[in-house]
Write a structure and sequence with these properties.
Elements lengths: L2 E7 L3 H16 L5 E8 L3 H11 L3 E3 L2 H6 L5 E4 L6 H10 L3 E5 L6 H13 L4 E4 L6 H11 L6 E9 L16 H4 L3 H16 L3 E9 L4 E5 L11 E7 L5 E8 L4 E7 L8 E8 L2 E6 L5 E6 L9 E5 L20 H18 L7 H20 L3 E2 L4
Helix pairs in contact: 1-9, 4-5, 5-10, 8-10
Length: about 375
């Protein structure tokens, strides 16, 4: 079987999710090449070595350039904090590597455009890791919309709610620093629901947003970086330079309208990504905390039997599901990444377009940037078409 060597940069939360994906892709999916986990890269020799041993990476390094220099690495997967994405993606594409990059693709739209154009010029496959598209229930929503089941779309109402930084003593981790992450809940969480809206409803045409930072200063962490668990506090305080919450209204090119809310201050909401889409013939509703379910209201049914139907999207007929378990044996967060890795390998070998690609990452970032501009100017902002 043909083999494709993978080099992964990043060894924290996403590094783990992607390690698992490369490890399992050829086990769950019949794909035309086997991803071989050649090298993992990260900062902190002890941790990176341990990660390599635990997940089965053949080798490890602290220098990402060593990953790119290797002839046996064909795919470079970037899972670092956001400010490093551009440099690494451009360098990988220049070396002719196919590239996967975590979201948000860059720090702003001009960075993303440069990354997209560079990958196209290098003729490499590129994918931005918006994992939630590959949830079978979300794919079912996509198929129902495409088949005309809910007709013309009027509304999308989407939220992404978390609560992990409400404690003012939670340290100033990298996700709370603008120069490292670009933005806060906005780029981290709105990026996902913007992606789902583009996937399911269509292109945005204009937005009007607001942001808030509830806790303006936090204890500095003991070491740079820091994950969702926060880690140990160091000495002194530092300024939070990103939003804690970002909300916006939107119009779409096809006439639909939407509302979006991302926050890390919704007490009790851990990873609550929800959307509801209302069309002339029906509605669809999804909640990631029950990710195997899609709710479908069919307004064409006789009135006396109408009601939201709970569809368990775990039948072999649902996208991706037959690759996992017999119907009804539910799947989780990690399966979306496995499907993404499998599709990416297929796109490389069969020379088809990977999705969502860097153009999607760019168009997503245009919306993210426009919301921040709108919040600053307190006005509606149009999304550029180019
Ligand atoms: C943390 O807020 C986070 O891990 C995001 O970075 C992910 O993209 C999201 O899937 C879950 O929450």
């Amino acid at each position: 079987m043909k083999e494709l060597g993978v080099g992964l940069i990043g060894h924290q939360f996403m590094g783990k999710a992607h390690s698992n994906a490369w490890l399992k892709a050829a086990k769950f999916f019949d794909i035309p090449a086997k991803p071989v986990m050649k090298v993992i890269c990260g900062i902190g020799a002890k941790e990176v070595q341990a990660m390599a041993e635990r997940w089965g990476w053949e080798s490890w390094t602290e220098n990402y350039k060593e990953v790119l220099d290797r002839d046996d690495v064909h795919i470079v997967d970037v899972c670092t904090p956001n400010f490093l994405h551009k440099e690494m993606v451009l360098a990988a594409a220049a070396k002719g590597k196919h590239v996967v990059c975590e979201k948000p693709l860059g720090m702003n739209a001009s960075e993303c455009r440069e990354m997209w154009k560079a990958a196209e010029k290098a003729k490499v496959k590129h994918m931005v890791s918006h994992c939630y598209r590959r949830c079978p229930a979300v794919m079912l929503a996509k198929e129902l919309i495409a088949s005309g089941a809910i007709g013309r779309i009027f509304h999308i109402r989407a939220v992404y709610l978390q609560d992990w930084i409400i404690d003012p003593k939670f340290p100033l981790v990298w996700r709370l620093k603008k120069e490292v992450s670009g933005s806060g809940a906005h780029g981290d969480l709105n990026a996902h629901i913007i992606d789902l809206a583009r996937f399911l409803v269509g292109e945005f045409s204009e937005v009007c947003g607001m942001t808030e930072t509830f806790i303006k200063e936090r204890p500095l962490p003991e070491a740079a970086g820091g994950g969702l668990a926060g880690g140990k506090k160091g000495k002194g305080m530092g300024k939070v330079t990103v939003d804690d919450a970002a909300l916006f209204l939107a119009r779409f090119a096809n006439g639909a309208i939407g509302s979006f809310e991302a926050t890390r201050f919704a007490q009790g909401r851990k990873n609550c990504e929800r959307f509801e889409i209302n069309g002339e013939k029906g509605s669809l509703a999804f909640d990631f905390e029950e990710m195997n379910v899609l709710w479908y209201f069919d307004a064409t049914r006789p009135k006396n039997v109408q009601g939201f139907t709970k569809i368990l999207a775990t039948d072999p007929s649902h996208s991706y599901f037959k690759n996992y378990w017999p119907g009804g044996h539910i799947i989780g967060y990690e399966h979306q990444f496995i499907a993404g890795a499998a599709d990416f390998v297929k796109a490389i070998v069969e020379d088809t377009k990977a999705w969502p690609d860097f153009e999607d990452g760019y168009r997503n970032q245009l919306v993210l940037d426009a919301v921040l501009e709108s919040a600053e100017k307190k006005t509606w902002v149009r999304i550029p078409k180019q």
